[in-house]
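Slide 14.
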Amino acid sequence: MLTVPAAMTIDEAFEAFLAEQRKRLSPKTLRNYEDVVSLLRSSLNGYAYQSLDSLEEKRWRKAFDAGDEEEFTRLFGPEKIIENLDEFLGYFMVRKVMAGQELLRAAGTVTKKLASWLHEQGYISEDERADAVERGGDAARELPRADRLGELLHDEMAKTPPFDPEDVPGQDWVEDFLAIERIEPGALWFEGGIGPVRVSKKASDLAHVGWGVNVVLARLRGEWRIVELGFVYP
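Slide 15: predicted structure.
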């Protein structure tokens, strides 16, 4: 049975977690931990209200409407962190943060450590800890790979020859958020059988079936080309 710990806000939990890390981490690694916790705090304050029930939302809305845009982490307890990790790792770190490979990898590592710490403090169950650790491990591997894949797809987009979009028939133009459906060396297919889209072998080696891409594709002279590219979501 989960032991009920002393009441603590998310902000207080973050401070306590970082205080423990300061005792064991090198200054460089600690900076990554502090940066990830700061970003997680921003994600919670910006988006986690969507996970609240009606009564909790009223509490949050009252403070937010009074001008406090960082009230979420001062109002709610650390049990709210885990249920919002998917938003942080699957959206916020991909779309809202201009992060390098090291910080993207650290986002997964730090959330794993934070989940274990929250479990040790009695704020989350063993099942919640295990799920969060698995999610953090996946993110540590996949976020840097997806970021690098995005860079390589941008390189392919730069190779698309100039053309007039008005000359492209509707069936040869796709603008959507598409999942990668199939991968072969040097080629990707997107959901709906759209492809092949020729890419470098480095890009196809990085890609995973099921990853999503914001993309505009055009079939030019019988070949699908990347016209515009957004983000790659692992």
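Speaker note: The chain has a mean pLDDT of 93.
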